[in-house]
Specification:
This protein is α+β, with helices and mostly antiparallel strands and 160 residues long. It has one domain: Nuclear Transport Factor 2, Chain: A, CATH 3.10.450. The protein is built from 5 helices and 6 strands. It has helices at residues 2-15, 24-41, 44-49, 68-75, 139-158, and strands spanning 51-58, 65-67, 84-92, 98-107, 111-122, 125-134. Strands 2-1-6-5-4-3 form a 6-stranded mixed beta sheet. The protein is globular. Residues 28-138 form the SnoaL-like domain. This is Nuclear transport factor 2 family protein.
Length: 160
Amino acid sequence: MLRQLFWGFFIICALFTKPALATGKESIDQTLDAFHHAAAEADWDAYFALTSDDLIFLGTDASERWDKAVFRAYAEKSTGWVYYPKERHINLTPDGNSAWFDEILESVNYGTSRGTGILIRTNNGWKISQYHLTFPIPNELAAGITQQIQTFEARQKTGQ
């Protein structure tokens, strides 16, 4: 229900915005919004159509550096994931053919997260070339969290 309300609101807002190619940043915004929408709907054809052939997806686990084929195989086993963009910053290279972004996302499962990445302009519009999902850790919690990670990694090395 929450998913349908969000996307209904999203579609209504999209109908009253400027044309898709008005500026590079607006086009990138729309590409990223469509990327999140396709993930929420588990529409993997639409999702991966928004990515370049050389996509790299960096997940939250240090071991998750996936190329497009491996990430697609992972995604297709899932029922999707829902991240609501809360804040986004986009920067373009001087020639306007590449861009990088960072965004704060909200998720029912994980709470606050951050996505960063790179897009390239193609003849078929903007394509996501790299996406990196992270969990921002408040500074007050960082020492405890990093200690937990170090303990976990040490156990993994010793096979415990």
